[in-house]
Amino acid sequence: MFDEMKGNGSTGGAIRPAYTALAAWLDEVKPDVLDFRRREAELLFRRIGITFAVYGDPEAQERLIPFDVIPRILSAPEWETLQRGLEQRVKAINAYIKDIYHRREILKAGIVPEDLVFQNPVFRPEMNGQKVPHDIYVHVAGIDIVRTDADTFYVLEDNARTPSGVSYMLENREIMLRLFPELFSRYRIAPVENYPDELLQTLKSVAPPTASADPTVVLLTPGVHNSAYYEHSFLADKLGVELVEGRDLVAKDDIVYMRTTEGLKRVDVIYRRIDDDFLDPLVFRPDSALGVPGLMSAYQAGNVTLANAVGTGIADDKAVYSYMPQIVKFYLDEEMLLKNVPTWRCREDEHLSYVLDHIEELVVKEVHGSGGYGMLVGPKSDKTTISAFRAKLKSNPKNFIAQPTLALSTCPTCVDEGIAPRHVDLRPFVLSGRDSIRIVPGGLTRVALKKGSLVVNSSQGGGTKDTWVLDR
Amino acid sequence: MLSRTADNLYWLARYVERAEYLARILDTTLRLTALPLAYVGASNEWESAVATAGCASAFFAAHDEANEETVTEFLAFSTSNPSSIRNCFESARLNARAVRTALTIEMWDTINSAWLELRKWGNGPASREEFARFLRWVLESSLRFDGSAYRTMLRNDAYWFSRLGVYIERADNTARILDVKYHLLLPAHEQVGGPLDYFQWSSILRSVSALTAYHWVYRENVKPWLVADLLMLKDEMPRSLANCYDNLMQNLDRIANAYGRQGPAQRQARTVRARLENSRIDEIFQTGLHEFIEEFIEDNNRLGSAIAQQYLM
Predict the structure, then answer these.
(1) Taking 80 as the threshold, does the pLDDT of residue B169 lie above it?
(2) Taking the CB of residue B34, how many other CB atoms lie within 10 A of it?
(3) Mean pLDDT of B183-203
């Protein structure tokens, strides 16, 4: 088991260089001081109103994601490795989506099976032959990364639709700066606060050619009842753009406007945090009250840019994920820098029988699942759960993939019994604009607060940490 | 600015103002009902409180009798009465949350803390003492909100729309008190100035926090036509109809200047304002206090819809 602070030695191992100052500080600081700051942090979060909703839990309409005050630290060389890998991956994802909606060479070459694309419910035929500004589909990607030892990082999942969590990256840093100034003085930490600025530049860079030199950008939210609403309003505020709901927008003659107190105002770029299905009731789900009738037509006419583009879901489900090394090779003619977790596709008979034989050791996931729902962690599950899952798997194997249970790295974390190692992952955010790919050094570190647990999702009792990337 | 944002700001301010008004009505009613019957007469003050709050029909649909228990529950804590103090704070926060970014930290903090605090009160207070504390807390929350808006908001359309909400609601509230109590203000032939009237009149003043102001303005005993004069026509009285319309005019004009366009809302406000300016209290009493107030309430509603039409949709 690899610990980010102590390395591979289970106890008493040498402190890894990036963590020396932190470890020294943890030794000095009195437990009650740490505990006090921890409660202070919670109070701050509650007052700022950073909450999220847990679906299906009426008792907790608004809940705080637990915040852990001990930062997760990455050295400069570690970050540079990640950065190169992320850039490469997102470039390949954009090329892949463009190809699928245009020439489909990767299908013709027989590298990705056709049914994986065409039978995928998130494939959008509306996008066939559709031009998007500068061929960028995924303007904001959240790539989930885990680590198993000092040199090995894996990509666990690509999020190419509407990845969330970046507000925590920013707020966690703010809170840490407020609560632990003395700790910051012992490190040189790369800032993340320029993320909104980078995001705005990215969004403006993909405005339609018809837009003015200073395009109007808005953030489209499903509304206050969405679990990520806090993030939407937070980002709109930091970007200095209007936070709109579907009912604030109107499409007339293929142009999108927002309703303002001074009449209708033209909109050029929509950073939408609402799923494809709900964008436009005339094209997608007719019962959607969240979208804008006529939006797709305006989009297809090229009068408004949607970020991310429609139909990017074909690049981020877990079955496509398993083809990512070939996808990178095909478009960039490069070896993939960031590894994929070995993945068994249950759609293939050989793989399925392996998975059924080894289910106790594997993690089995739904191809379209997210948020840690609908998955089985073999080693942590009892016999009845496993046999129930086995039945589900047999009845619809296409719907599942399986991966080995990775020994995720741990990071020291404040828990009830003191400071103890807990498993973590990392979600950096990758911005793709006309001119460049931008990645703010850091990301969202999620931590599984339950001892031994590997599920870091906030909906399943996970927490977050500030992520420090050290400057050279 | 988005029409919806303006709408949220407007309603946020209205709900906070309404919560404060309900707290004042309840406070005044508690005081009146604490007095021996001889001082207040046999009228049912709780029934009058419900009428003043403007929700008599909703109340009697749910309850047979207006008494301390049913009315406090309905006006303060009820989840089914959309205008209870609880729901006012609930709606205020929902509106605030929807425009989180248009608010200053201080405003958000006030409204969010009030909402968090409200949960502690559960389904109501255990005692009268606790209830009195609750009402004080409501007043304080409203004052904090108003103060934080005044002290921290940029003076732009966001501020002006939120002010419109305050004054439309306030004008409506003051007019409603007068409407329910108008019969008490009409000069009676006999017994003017008896203890019964004194407490009723002073309770009207108290419910708009104007009892001290009255004495400063008139330096006289409490007289019904002066109470009406103060609450309707005196510019310097912060809750008078005249003052509300001064403020409505000013804020509407600022919006019109910023947007470069006057509209129906400005014209409507000007008409009402002119009517208040040109009225004298003795003439109002002669031509009919009740009719005057009823018409005012309608006019005020009309202004509300004009603002909505022009800016909020």
Answers:
(1) yes
(2) 10
(3) 65
CB-CB under 8 Å, B112 with A259: no
The answer to pTM > 0.80 is yes
B163 against A43, higher pLDDT: B163
Question: Quick one: pLDDT band at residue B194, thresholds 50, 70, 90?
Answer: low
Mean pLDDT rounded to a whole number for chain B: 89
- Euclidean distance between CA atoms A378 and A405, whole angstroms: 8
Which of left, alpha, beta for A134 (phi over 0: left; psi -120 to 50: alpha)? left
How far A90 CA lies from chain B's nearest CA (Å)?
31
Report chain B's terminal Cα–Cα distance, integer Å: 12
> Using CB atoms and an 8 Å cut-off, which of residues 108-137 of chain B contact chain A?
108-109, 112-113, 116
Q: Tell me how far apart the 2 most distant CA atoms of chain A are, in Å.
A: 69
Q: For residue A224, which residues of chain B lie inside 8 Å, CB to CB?
A: 94, 97-98
Structural domains for chain A: 17-208+304-341+406-469 (no CATH), 345-404 (3.30.1490.270)
Among the partner-chain residues B6, B108, B109, the one whose CB lies closest to the CB of A261 is B6
CB contacts < 8 A (A, B): 52
ipTM for the predicted complex comes to 0.79
Q: Cα B169 to chain center, whole Å?
A: 6
Count of C-beta atoms within a 10 Å radius of residue A431? 23
- Determine the Cα–Cα distance for residues B131 and A327; give it in Å rounded to an integer: 68
Q: Which amino acid, A440?
A: V
Q: What pLDDT score was predicted for residue B128?
A: 87
Residues in Cβ contact with B207 at an 8 Å cutoff, skipping those fewer than 6 apart: B24, B25, B27, B28, B52, B177
* Enclosing H/E stretch for B305: helix B289-307
**A43 contacts in B (CB within 8 Å)?**
none
Characterize B159-185 residue by residue with b for buried, 16 or more Cβ atoms within 10 angstroms of its Cβ, and e for exposed: bbbbbbbbbbbbbbbbbbbbbbbbebb
pLDDT of residue A54: 46
Cβ-Cβ contacts under 8 Å, A260 against chain B: 1-3
Residues of chain A with pLDDT under 70: 9-12, 47-63, 369-372
